[in-house]
Structures are given as C-alpha cells and as structure tokens.
Write a structure and sequence with these properties.
133 residues; mainly beta; Virus Head Decoration Protein, Chain: A
Length: 133
C-alpha cells in the first residue's frame, strides 16, 4: 500500500568558499569517514554540520570527531577537513562523510574561528598536505 504521509526534507546550500581550487576534490581523492555525532554537539544547530570543520580520529572508536587541541583521545591530532556539509537526523549517533586532507584552503573562510573544530596554529603545522592562503 502506498503511504500518503507527509515527509519533510531539509536542505542547505553547500558553502565551500574555504577551498582555493579543485585540487584534492577530484573523484576518489577524499577518504570515506564515519563521524561520531554526539561529539559534534553545538556544531549543527540547524541540523547540518558544515563543511570545513577540522576533524580528528578518536583512537578508541576510530570514528572522526571535531579537532580539539586539548584532547587526549586522538582528537588533538588533526586529520583534515570535513569535505561536505552533513545532515544530522535527530537521535543519530554516526553519519558517513568525506575527508579533505590535501589541497589548498582559504583559512579565513572556514566556518569556525575558535573552539572545537576550528583551525589553530598547531593544526596548520600538523596538516602538512594542506597549503593555506
């Protein structure tokens, strides 16, 4: 039987103005990653985690979390940037995404300027395959 229930779909325009060019965005260039959604609390107030957030891999779960220079679980080691904005369903615990780990980045156009997931000098130094403006 066909369902006549109303379904709601949210959408958001992608903002990748933080990328300086197409290098590192070619098909197959971005690794698939799994994000640990509870660790992104406060970073998706409108239901979307924006692209350009600095992410790290938690050593215990092997899932990706926001970069945190004060972390002691692997979150203090930046792996790259979240390549595409991700929709987060209420109650979701994990979601798949893509990792941007080499290429050119406009640091002043990243979505966060401070706190977890933001680029700092330590992350700039550690991300050796990223060329910043």
């Amino acid at each position: 039987m066909t369902s006549l229930n109303v379904k709601r779909w949210d959408a958001q325009s992608e903002n990748r103005s933080w990328l300086r060019g197409p290098h590192g965005t070619e098909p197959g260039a971005n690794a698939n990653i799994t994000l640990d959604i509870p660790t992104f609390a406060g970073l998706h107030p409108n239901g979307f985690i924006p692209s350009g957030i600095v992410v790290s891999r938690d050593v215990a779960t092997q899932k990706f979390v926001p970069y945190d220079p004060a972390g002691l679980d692997g979150s203090e080691v930046p792996a790259g940037f979240l390549f595409g904005s991700l929709s987060v369903a209420e109650g979701a615990t994990v979601v798949g995404g893509a990792l941007f780990d080499h290429g050119y980045v406009n640091a002043d156009r990243l979505p966060l300027s401070e706190g977890k997931g933001a680029l700092d000098e330590a992350a700039r130094t550690a991300l050796t395959h990223i060329i910043f403006d």
